[in-house]
Amino acid sequence: MTLAYCLGKVGPVPELKRLHADHAPAVLAFELANRAYFAASISDRGDDFFAQFTDRYNALLAEQEAGISACYVLVAEDGSVLGRFNLVDIEDHTAELGYRVAQHVAGRGVATATVRELCRLAAARHGLRTLRNSATGSRSMWPAVAWRPRPSGSCAGWRRPATGCAHCGRPPPARMSRPRRY
Description:
The chain is of the alpha+beta class. It has helices at 3-7, 24-33, 35-39, 46-51, 53-66, 110-124; strands at 15-18, 70-75, 81-91, 94-101, 130-133, 140-143, 159-160, 164-165. The chain has a 6-stranded mixed sheet with strand order 1-2-3-4-5-6, with helices on both faces. It has a two-stranded antiparallel ribbon with strand order 7-8.
């Protein structure tokens, strides 16, 4: 399953780009538009985050420049941000992976496909061997070099027999009847 296959379900295929200063307005718009959605499942960033957004954003870019983090945004064709994907606390070929996607693309395989792509980038561009999931703390997420999707026919290895893939929405395979022997 390719990034294009899953993400094509949300319209034209978005692009995973390294975070830079020009993304600031779109990132702020993304955070504001999805604030209530994010607060329903994780702690709210609070009003201070938005009041000091420019300073925090510049500090994040400085960390990235210093090699402490590597931040990416998933950008739609119109320039809007569909998700943020960060590799932070980079040290000893290990990093913590955190991400969030916009409510209107959640549940469509966007996060799964983009995390898969980021795992490839983590190994190729940043020399990382292990990523930890920021949501689970120190539990190892997977080795970035050796991570592979499960070979079950769905994009991430998880299928719901009646409804198809839970992540990309691909329908289940058609039932094939056994040929009758006469």
